[in-house]
Amino acid sequence: MSNTQVRLPQPVTSEHVALKARKVSFAWEETPLHWIPGDPFTTHTINVLHLLLPAGERWFVHVYKQVLPHIRDEKLREDVIGFIGQEAMHAQAHDEVLPHLKEQGLDPAPYLAQVDWMFEKLLGDRTLPPGKARKWWLMERVALIAAIEHYTAFLGDWVLNAESLDRKGADPTMLDLLRWHGAEEVEHRSVAFDLFMHVDGGYARRVRTWATAFSALVFLWQRGARFFMENDPSLTDGRATWRQFHAKGRQGVLPTAGAMARSIPRYLDRAYHPSQEGSTAQAVAYLASSPAALAADAREKGAA
Known about the structure:
By secondary structure, the chain is an all-alpha fold.
């Protein structure tokens, strides 16, 4: 009996919505270097998203364009196409923050080169013969994306509910970027997993690629936070430590280590399905009020 026949994950039907890319734009001129006032550590820990996401989400799009011919379900194909559109827009939006960081004295180029190498070389296309080897590598990457999307949805749900960021006076433009992106991650949180289950669904592959994705994300995130803190021109002794991370989690301005740990067995449960987590209604409600999403909608209607 295959892994997909044992306790088959059950999606929550009411959590499914049609996906569309919102062509948002943000103006960064008024956003300060430390967009959470007096808190460079939290600012830079979250800023790592601007370094990881553009390359990662372009890689998602590249892989998914290759897997489209393997999709036999038209509804899933529509979801994947919507996912591709949203992820491409996410990459563009975060890319546009990078010149602003450079203007403020933080040139991310050295770190970005490492991230680009990982997605373009280590996880990129390989010269493999047609057949089993080429399909194996494609399925590995599809499974990796499903594991990564478990954490992007986790972060999306967290930022939608992180009221401590508002109380700390976080820059409203940056908050809107993060919550617009987070809402769309929650909105499309089931697509990557559904695609993996459709084209493969092997439990051993799911566990193996989760371990790879989780380890890589932790490594890259702490490395990025240290890079920002050490290169922040306004800090004389910038450091990023695990103790700071735990403290900021207790304050509610970063996810807690406990919440992250509890997300692990949920993903590894054979009955797991992403629709069982987060709230599509909350995500859609934020997207209906997001300044950037509303402006994008108005531009689209004006051009029609």
